[in-house]
Amino acid sequence: TLKKIKKQQQDVKGFLAANKIEFEECDIAADEDNRKWMREHVPEDSRPATGNPLPPQIFNEDRYCGNYEAFFCAREDNAVYAFLGLTAPPGSKEAEALSKKTQM
Q1: pLDDT tens digits, residue range 5-55?
Q2: What's the first-to-final CA gap in the chain, in angstroms?
């Protein structure tokens, strides 16, 4: 539903803004080119069985990161920077978790 999509979009944008991760929001409702680009760049194995992929779909430039569910799981696991293909900043929960893994 539209309400659910809007909430998920706000959730992603709020997290990115709170963590000072730069992002560009692309409106697919008002811009046919954005809609077409998103649909072409979501990999086959990440598409729904029927219909088109629904927003939010998350990309780092042209690299597909995942949908809201994948973002949510990465956030729960303190792995959003890895999910986005970014280096976790020093002092972040993710950087601390990574340094603990490499020390083992």
Answers
A1: 999 999 999 999 999 999 999 999 999 999 999 999 999 999 999 999 999
A2: 45
What is the reported pLDDT for 35? 95
For residue 36, count CB atoms less than 10 angstroms from its CB and return exposed for 0-12, middle for 13-18, buried for 19 or more: exposed
Q: Are 78 and 94 in contact (CB under 8 A)?
A: yes
DSSP states of 19-85 as a string? TT-------SSS-HHHHHHHHHHS-GGGS-SSSPPPSPEEEETTEEEEEHHHHHHHHHTT-HHHHHT
CB atoms within 10 A of CB 58: 20
pTM of the predicted protein model: 0.89
